[in-house]
């Protein structure tokens, strides 16, 4: 009886916190907007924003527009990342796995010790991780081979004051002029740089440390990189990606949806419904994958790479 009461009390406590979190967040947003409007009205800040309008000049020879390969990479990154977040949350919260998977030790990857049995949810998470990393490597090679890196890698120190200027413009609801076809604003540039070159590698090295692929008997290596450190990194990085996706999608839709979607999916700077149509089809694919990622469909695929069991 006491256990039931405790669970009920915990559930009510969570609902109560959520109930107050929403209005608290709205009040905080209003206060930030009001503060930003007051700050941007100061003469010194206006002068600062005139000197730093919110974007840095790109290096000579920087490419203009988005090639077709970038549209595919954008979709694949979003596709894998969405499912990685879903399965990562399942791994973190599932107490009774839907099944177990043991790697076939006769394939390409062979180890001296017997493979470790892991949950079906963890197998799917690690498989998605591998595909995401492979796609990321292809993305990095194409990024530097085509010069697209100049659009998301800072090349001058004025990117920082320009990013502050862009942040003030966003916060005061006087949003910076968008022309992503030619050049991102400095805040976007820094955000994309952090996402691609810092958050993604952190997700990889922290996820690898907590996975079954990490050598358990490497004493010196494990002491230098404790699993507790990896766990302390991995979950916050997931939260970062969730926040990035929410803000990114919101700004894409709020700052000229048709033009932005045509940039990323239609391959042109036109304002038409082509990019929106391709985007809608990609969302449909991701929604379908979300609902099909169930044990009924995962078990046959997992059995091709190892043994699937119920316990």
What can you tell me about this protein's structure?
The radius of gyration is 23 Å and the shape is globular. It contains eleven helices and three strands, in the order H-H-H-E-E-H-H-H-H-H-H-H-H-E. The chain has 311 residues and is mainly α. 68% of the residues lie in helices and 3% in strands. The protein has helices at 2-40, 43-51, 68-93, 120-145, 159-171, 186-210, 219-224, 227-254, 257-266, 274-292, 295-303, and strands at residues 100-103, 118-119, 306-309. The model has no long low-confidence stretch (mean pLDDT 89). Helix 3 (68-93) runs antiparallel to helix 4, helix 5 packs across helix 6 (186-210) and helix 6 packs antiparallel against helix 8.
Could you give a short account of the major beta sheet?
3 strands, antiparallel
Mean of all residue-level pLDDT scores = 89
How are the strands of the biggest sheet laid out side by side?
A: 2-1-3
Q: State the secondary-structure class.
A: mainly alpha
Written as H for each helix and E for each strand, in order along the chain, the element string is HHHEEHHHHHHHHE
The number of strands is 3
Overall 3D form:
globular
Span of the ends, CA to CA: 31 Å
Q: What proportion strand?
A: under 5%
Helix content: 55-70%
Uncertain runs with pLDDT below 50, 5 residues or more? none
Annotation field: number of helices: 11
The radius of gyration over CA amounts to 23 Å
